[in-house]
Specification:
210 residues; Aminopeptidase; 11 strands
């Protein structure tokens, strides 16, 4: 799978979260951008093509202190524009194959479950109109699922990675059979994702304005 499918899915997720806060973004040929500062943990731009240039993103966002750009193909150099690399990660994909069932996982409508790992109020009930939240009550594990085209995005995984990824993957395979999964991770989360059947498909960077 090409990283562009994962990048597009992630941009759609970012746009969904922003829209629930009254901050809709804009999709262009090379990038998704938001003219207003997005909510904490969410970028002001996501590149959709390796051909994207700094002008494609910086001309369409608030470039003041705190601005962030998800460089989906690790091709931009935003250092000369006052940005530094906040972190690097890998896009990941899992083929549409069955996953071992994990008992106790369910779909939830309680967005407050994420408040233990993310700022309270980041995820709003309106998310449920276009996304699916899954968790295992009592374990502190959960994840978000969003669909774009033929792929399902797995994101915002919380809890012990070794327990969260197998459960979230099993739920995604049950709810969306026959669809590949995409996302991005780094560190322990990436290791857990690989053990759950994902493979790295390309690098990304997130830049932050000083």
């Amino acid at each position: 799978m090409e990283p562009s499918a994962a990048a597009r899915n992630n941009a759609e997720w970012c746009d969904l979260v922003c829209r629930t806060h009254g901050l809709p973004g804009r999709f262009g040929g090379r990038a998704w951008t938001n003219p207003r500062r997005t909510h904490v943990y969410y970028p002001d731009a996501v590149t959709l093509s390796p051909d994207a240039t700094p002008d494609d993103v910086l001309a369409a966002i608030d470039t003041g202190a705190g601005a962030s750009v998800k460089d989906s193909f690790a091709t931009l150099d935003l250092g000369p524009h006052g940005f530094h690399v906040l972190f690097e990660a890998q896009w990941i994909a899992r083929p549409p194959i069955p996953a071992p069932a994990v008992d106790g996982w369910e779909v939830t409508t309680d967005v407050r479950a994420w408040s233990t790992s993310y700022p309270d109020g980041l995820f709003l009930p309106e998310l449920l109109e276009e996304a699916t939240l899954v968790w295992r009550p009592g374990t502190g594990c959960g994840a978000a699922l969003n669909t774009t085209g033929d792929v399902v995005g797995l994101s915002n995984v919380f809890g012990d990675p070794g327990a969260a990824f197998p459960g979230a993957v099993a739920m995604a395979a049950e709810l969306f059979p026959g669809r590949p999964l995409v996302g991005y991770e780094a560190g322990q989360e990436l290791e857990a994702a690989v053990l759950a059947g994902f493979q790295p498909i390309g690098p990304l960077r997130v830049w932050l304005k000083d």
